[in-house]
Write a structure and sequence with these properties.
Elements: E1 2-3, E2 6-9, H1 19-26, H2 35-43, E3 47-49, E4 52-53, E5 65-68, E6 71-72, H3 87-91, E7 93-96, E8 100-105, H4 121-128, E9 140-141, E10 150-156, H5 159-170, E11 174-183, E12 189-193, E13 196-201, E14 206-211, E15 220-231, E16 235-244, H6 251-258, H7 272-281, E17 289-298, E18 303-308, H8 313-318
Parallel strand pairs: 10-17
Antiparallel strand pairs: 1-6, 2-5, 3-4, 3-5, 7-8, 8-10, 9-10, 11-16, 11-17, 12-15, 13-14, 15-16, 17-18
Length: 323
């Protein structure tokens, strides 16, 4: 597909959706257009809202005018419906009802693909919930986890459920608990209250988050030491539990690194010497961060949902050492 110029006026049924999700639905009937193509067009200014550039996370409003000047696919690929096996995805389902699906995300998997050869967790959701997709709604995850972060991931199967998960995240009515293995002997308890700002890492050519008390946004992480360990080849490490009161990009990774205890395996914020040992000698090639528990009130079922994702095997492997 080669779109010279398309103009879309947003109506009430599509208000408050993320721009990227709306466009994904808009182009769903054209299998040649990927989410990567959409992201590329947004970054290059080929897609504008009300005459201005907009970010992918911008939430469109009624009467917004979305103009698509050019969107083309240079790497057409076969439908993923034909190549994906759903067995592993189904085994990772932690909870499901009529409104939501909660899964245990594996590591080494992005949320949305920008490469035609990659498979994203959203692709699995699209296939699993294929019958629920309509011209105005696609089941979607309510938040993101980094590519190499594992654990609880909540998807909405209906528009009211998506609006609700967005609301409770925005209003901080959801309790989020993570586990991480960090380098060093972590204190028994630490409250990290440091403002964070998005930046760009020239070395790794990717986004990162830095502490910036003047221009950053407040971020709070409360940490408890669960176990100190002396690993025979990694040295002093600690298993910590982290509750985040805010949800900034790379928050736990940036916060723990800023106080001298980087997440083990983190190539952006971590310690290269220790990471090389983890990658080469233990064959664990990711940051050891896990979304362990999410708890929130379910307005549809009038009950509190507490969802737990089991500790991954690579965590358990590293923790097989003397205290």
């Amino acid at each position: 597909m080669d779109t010279k110029q398309t103009q879309i006026v947003i109506d009430t049924s599509n208000t408050n959706q993320r721009l990227d999700r709306f466009l994904r639905k808009f182009f769903r009937s054209d299998s040649s257009i990927t989410l990567g193509d959409i992201y590329a067009a947004i970054r290059k200014g080929g897609i504008k809202v009300n005459g201005k550039r907009a970010k992918e996370e911008y939430r469109i409003q009624e009467s917004d005018v979305v103009v698509i000047r050019k969107l083309e696919n240079k790497n057409p690929k076969a439908s993923k419906d034909e190549t994906l096996s759903m067995e592993d995805f189904k085994k990772r389902i932690l909870y499901e009802d009529n409104n939501r699906l909660i899964v245990d995300k594996p590591y080494d998997m992005v949320m949305h693909t920008t490469n035609p050869k990659d498979i994203a967790i959203q692709d699995y959701l699209d296939i699993y919930c294929k019958k629920l997709i309509t011209p105005t709604f696609t089941p979607s995850f309510g938040y993101r986890l980094d590519k190499d972060t594992t654990g609880v991931l909540v998807a909405a199967k209906t528009m009211p459920a998506l609006q609700y998960i967005n609301k409770i995240i925005r209003d901080r009515e959801i309790s989020k608990m993570y586990y991480a293995i960090v380098v060093g002997k972590f204190p028994d308890h630490m409250l990290i209250d440091k403002a964070l700002e998005k930046s760009f890492n020239e070395k790794f050519k990717r986004g990162q988050t830095v502490v910036n008390e003047r221009f950053g946004e407040r971020a709070v992480s409360e940490c408890w030491n669960e176990k100190n360990m002396t690993h025979p080849i990694l040295g002093e490490i600690s298993l910590i539990k982290v509750k985040i009161e805010t949800g900034k990009m790379h928050q736990i990774r940036a916060h723990t690194a800023s106080v001298g205890y980087p997440v083990l395996g983190d190539i952006v914020y971590g310690k290269p010497v220790v990471n090389r040992i983890l990658f080469k000698q233990l064959d664990i090639k990711r940051q050891l961060l896990h979304a362990y528990e999410y708890k929130f009130f379910d307005m549809f079922g009038n009950k509190t949902l507490k969802i737990v994702a089991p500790i991954p095997k690579d965590f358990q492997e590293v923790m097989k050492c003397k205290k």
